[in-house]
Amino acid sequence: MQQQMPRLAARALIVEQGKVLLVNAFADLDIPLMCLPGGGAHSGSSLPENLAREVFEETGLTIEVGAPCLVNEFHDPDTGFHQVEIFFKAQISKDSARPDTWDDPEHIVARRIWADANLLERVPHKPSSLAQLAFGDATGLSYDPLETIWKP
Questions:
Q1: DSSP string, 117-136
Q2: What is the Cα–Cα distance from 51 to 54, expressed in whole angstroms?
Q3: Does residue 56 sit in helix, strand or coil?
Q4: Distance in angstroms (rounded) separating the CA atoms of residues 65 and 136
Q5: I need a surface site. Which of 8, 62, 108, 137 has the fewest CB within 10 A?
Q6: How far apart are CA 133 and CA 26, in angstroms?
Q7: For the domain 7-148, what is the CATH superfamily, name and number?
């Protein structure tokens, strides 16, 4: 296995009316894993700029990016893939459209759900600390140590 540089990504924690916004994590919709919207950072843009772009592409929503709230790492020991994710609190902009359908240009995200704490318990998701992050009383920035990527 060849050593790979970690990939940097940004994700949006959007909580409204006691529900957190989740999107499918893989293009194969038979894989049930859900995650927060966001994705890989492009060089030359800030993490909040990258995040706003990714969320719009994946959901059709325009957001306002707030403070970082979590640094999470995961890896795949089989392939060497390693990703460092910076999670930011975010909210949907007041003037944002809220489309029922959208077209992800990367053709990965095709499903989004709003999950309350009870639904989140039943939905496979990453990171493992998402419930505490979305519904807990934590303040400030937290760190999740390296966790193994989810496999069906």
A1: HHHHHHS-BSSTTHHHHHHS
A2: 5
A3: helix
A4: 20
A5: 137
A6: 22
A7: Nucleoside Triphosphate Pyrophosphohydrolase (3.90.79.10)
Instruction: At 11, list the tokens.
Output: 């994700």
Residue with tokens 């293009």: 27
Which one-letter DSSP state was computed for residue 18? T
Cβ atoms of residues 36 and 13 within 8 Å: yes
Query: How many Cβ atoms from other residues are within 10 Å of residue 118's Cβ?
Result: 7
Q: What is the pLDDT of residues 75-133, one digit of tens each?
A: 988 888 999 999 999 999 999 999 988 999 999 999 999 999 999 999 999 998 999 99
- The mean pLDDT of the chain is 93
Enclosing H/E stretch for 49: helix 47-59
Rounded to whole angstroms, the Cα distance separating 9 from 87 reads 9
Residues 11 and 79: their CA atoms lie apart, in Å, by 23
CB 138, CB 70: distance < 8 Å: no
**What does the alpha-carbon distance between residue 31 and residue 111 come to, in Å, rounded to a whole number?**
12
Q: pTM higher than 0.90, yes or no?
A: yes
